Amino acid sequence: MTQTPLVDLRDICLSFGGVRAVDHVSIDLHAGEVVGLLGHNGAGKSTLIKILSGAYQKDSGEIRINGELADINSPRDARRYNIETIYQTLALADNLDAASNLFLGRELTTALGFVNDAQMEAETRKIMARLNPNFKKLKEPVSALSGGQRQSVAIARAVYFNAKILIMDEPTAALGVHETQMVADLIKELKAQGLGIFLISHDTREMLDLCDRVSVMKNGALVGTERVEDVTEDDILSMIIMGKNPKKAA
Amino acid sequence: MTDTSTDTTPAAPKRTLIQSLEIDLRLLGMIGAFAIVCITFNLLTEGRFLTPRNIFNLTIQTASVAIMATGMVFVIVTRHIDLAVGALLATCSAMMAMTQTTWLPQYLGLELGHPLIPWIAIAVGILTGALIGAFQGWLVGYMAIPAFIVTLGGLLVWRNVGWYLTNGQTIGPLDETYRAFGGISGTLGEFWSWIFGLVATAAALWILAASRRNKKAHGFPLKPLWAEGVVAAIVTIGIMGFIWILNSYQIPSRVLARDFAARGLEVPEGYSAAYGLPISVLLLIAVAVVMTIVARRTRLGRYIFATGGNPDAAELSGINTRLLTVKVFAIMGALCGLAALVASARLANHSNDIGTLDELRVIAAAVIGGTALSGGIGTIYGAILGALIMQSLQSGMAMVGVDAPLQNIVVGAVLVLAVLIDIIYRRRTGAG
Known about the structure:
The structure holds two protein chains of two kinds.
Chain A: E1 7-16, E2 19-29, E3 34-38, H1 45-52, E4 60-65, E5 68-70, H2 75-80, E6 83-86, H3 98-102, H4 117-131, H5 147-160, E7 165-169, H6 177-192, E8 196-200, H7 204-210, E9 213-218, E10 221-227, H8 233-242, H9 246-249
Parallel strand pairs in A: 3-8, 3-9, 6-7, 7-8
Antiparallel strand pairs in A: 1-2, 1-4, 4-5, 9-10
Helix pairs in contact in A: 4-5, 5-6
Chain B: H1 17-21, H2 25-44, H3 52-77, H4 85-108, H5 117-141, H6 147-166, H7 176-179, H8 189-217, H9 225-247, H10 253-262, H11 279-297, H12 299-309, H13 311-316, H14 321-347, H15 358-368, H16 380-400, H17 404-429
C-alpha cells in the first residue's frame, strides 16, 4: 500500500446541531479496491459518504483525490472528480424513462442544443445490453420497473460516465436474491476494471465476500479498518456492537 | 423469459388500432370530452353553438387563460402552485396601460399613436411579469417559503399594486396596434389565414417525417406506414379544418360598411371578407409550440419534469433546483404579461378587476388537462384543451340560459370529476 490512494479522507468532521455525525474519521481507498463501511443505523456511514459525494459539506478535514486536495461542495463537483454515487433510495425520477434518468444532468444534445432523446436511447440500449440483457422496458417511466431493473439504471449511470470512484449505499437493500447476485457480480467486474468502490451494507457476510477491507463506524467515530482476511464475522460484529476489536483489545 | 427476439424487431403482431397509431390515450379522452361538450350544447342551442361565429368567439375568449395555463403546467409539474396569476395579470395590464397612455407621452414625449408605443408597452408588461415571477420564485426556491403562501400573498399584493399604479381608474382607450392582440380587432384575414394553415401543416408533416427518419437511423421500431399516413391525415384535416371554420366567419356587412366609410369609400357590390385567424390565437399557438419544445426538447424542460418526479434525485444529479424554481416562476410571470396583453386588448381598456379569479381558471385548465398536483406529469396541449373545455362549458351554459350560480356549480363539479377520472385512469394503467 505504498502507492497514492485514489481517495484519501483525512480527519473529517461534520456536526448537525450539537450532534457529531462524523467525528475525526480518516479512510482511504485504492484503485481496484472495495472498501466496506459498516455500522449501526446512525453510525455516520451514510453521512461520511455523502460528504464525498457532495450532498453534505464537511466542517473540517480534507479530501484528497489521487493525492491532490479536492474541493467538493456539490454533487456536480463530485462528478467532476469522476465520483458516482448509487443511493439507497435509488435516486431516480420515477416519471421519466431509463434513458432520461441515465443522462439526467448530462443530457446528450443536438447541434442546436436540444436534448437528443434518440441518441440517448440508443446509448442506453447499448449499455443495458451489457449490464442487464433482460432489460427491455426502455420507453416506460422507471416507476414501471422492478427493483433490480431500477438498480441497473442507477449502476448504468455510473458505468456509462466512466466513474473512477463508485459509492454504493446499500445497493442490494431493495432487491431479490437473483438481483442481489447480479449486483455482486457487477461489483466484482467493476473492481477488476480498476474502479475504487465504497460499499455500504448491513449484510456482514456479503461485505466479507465482496470487500478487500472493511471500516467500522460507531457514533460518528471510526472504530477501525481491517483487511477481510484478518477478521471473522464475529470480530466485525463486536466492532459494530461493542465499538472495539476483541483481538486487538485482548 | 425465453423470448429471444431482440428489441429492434419492428411491430409485434398483436397491436390495437390506437397502439399502432401511437396516439396518447389521455389526449384522445380529452378530445372526446371536448367533442361531447360541443355536441351537447349544439343540440341544446339548436345549432347555434357550433357556428363559425361562436367557435371564433370561443377561441378568443380562451386565449388569455390558455396562455397562462401553459406556464401553470411547469409550476404544477415542479410541485408548486401559483395563486397570483390573476393578480399579476392585473399588474402587468396596469403597467402596459400606464406606459402607453401616460408615461411614454409625458416623460419621453412620444405622441399618443406613435408607432413605438405599443411595442414598448408590451415589452414593459412582459418584463414586469417576468421580474415579479422571478421574485416570487426566489422566495420559493431560495427562501424556502411554500409557493402556496408566497403566491397567496401575491394574490393580495399585486392586484392592489396595480390599483396604485392607476389610482384605481379604468385606463383607456388603448393604442390601436396594441388592441390588435385582443381578438376581433386584429385578425389575419382570409388569405393569410390559409397561408398560415398551409405553413403549419407543412411544418407538422415535416416533424412527423423527421421523427421517423431519426428513429430509422437508430434502428428503433417504426410505426407501420399506413399508421403514419393516418396520423398525417388527421393532423392535416385538423389544421386546415380549423382555418376553414375561422375563415367561414364573415365580417358583418354593417362592420364592412363602417370600415370602408372610415376610409371614405363605399363597399363594392357583392364584396365580402372573413375575419380569419385572430392574432391572439396565433400568439397562443406560438406560445404552445415554444412551451412544448421547452418541455420536450430542452434540458430546462427535462429538469422541470425530473424535479417534479423526484426533487432529491434531481438535486443529487447536479441540477440546481433552486434556480430552476426561479426560472419556472419567471416563465409563468412572463406569460401572465402576455396574457395581460391579450385580455386588456380584448377589452380595449385596463380596468382594475381584470383577470379576477383567473388563477382558478388557469389552475383548473391545467388540472383538467391532466397535470398532476403531485408533480412530474403534465402536458402543454392538455392544459390548452383544458382551458378550451372550461370556456366551452361556461359560454355554452350562458347560451343555453343556465342560471349563473348553477354555471359555477357545474364547472366546479366538472373540475373534481375530471381529476377523479384521471386518477382512476392512472391507477388502471399503472402510470404515475
